[in-house]
Description:
This protein is mostly helical.
Amino acid sequence: MADLTVPAGRRPRLPVRLIATPRRDVRPRHTLLALAVGLGVGLGATVAMLAAAGVPPRDVLNEFVIYTFFSSEGLALTMVAATPLIVVGLAAAAALRIGFWNIGIEGQAWMGAICATWVAVADIGSPGARLLLMALAAMAGGALMALPPLILKRRLGVNEIITTLLLNYVAALFVQHLVFGVWKDPASSFPYSESFEPGVERLAGLGWGKVHVGLIVALALAALLWLVAERSRIGAWVAAVGADARVAFACGLPVAGVIAGAVLLSGALAGLGGFMIAAGQEYRLTQALATGTGFSAIVIAFLARFGVIPVVIVAILTAGLYVAGDTAQVFYQLPRAVVLLIQGVILVSVVSADMLARYGIRLHRVGPHPARGDRP
Length: 376
């Protein structure tokens, strides 16, 4: 039998575990400072990676900051990209506020785009009401896509992460079926729907680049949701259910109704985001229309800590990051993988800094477990 005793004079090495403890008093200035530090670290790593790829550091500052946020053309591109991100970010925050992990934002955006395209292709309604009908159909489609996970969660206890995630693939494959089948463009035979009619089925521009009225709608929605969340009884109910649903139920609050309303609102907003991409940017249903919206929505909601106004700010910054990456890819012929790596490094830096602002990290040495017979 092997000798497992520890030699004299030597102490056994105990395993080390990282423990994250929530900070009690996290003030807004601490959060802003952490985000600024995270952004600075991410940009520093970006400068180093692009310098290794042959891009001058001064050009990185010009493309990632000055052009994106301080030039009229770049800022217009940023606001166009931010418009659907604001809406899907609000969608993710609406569900996460009450503890429902809606990972199906992308699928719900797909369904919203499908329903809006159906109204356009079938010429439903008068030309003057077409856009409104497309938006309402998109919201109904997104809410309908969120309904099965809600029912399965409430009735059978099925994990909503699994159901909402799997429905993303259902929606994406349904789009493939449509654009390769009955909705294939008859003019070009390419796998996308026919183009939306200008002035009838496209969101009107605001005279600033490609910025359209969807931006005004997104900001108006954010203002309305802020009033509901911060200045109404419903907002207090949502906060109570999100904090502890059992305590809220014991206090007599309509927990089931609050959860259902928040989840269906999340799906409807995600569908509206899909409509804004289809009617404001693509002007048709395409194969990649809503790709990545779910990931972006969840990141935005978490960085904003589910707050309405912070969602708007984080969505604009995230859109600027995407626009800067696309610009760098075009002007410096960078591979798409490098652009995605840069965006990922910046996002990971910001998320890590935000986590360190909210949690204290300490090392803890784990002692040996007592023998089975010695346990109380």
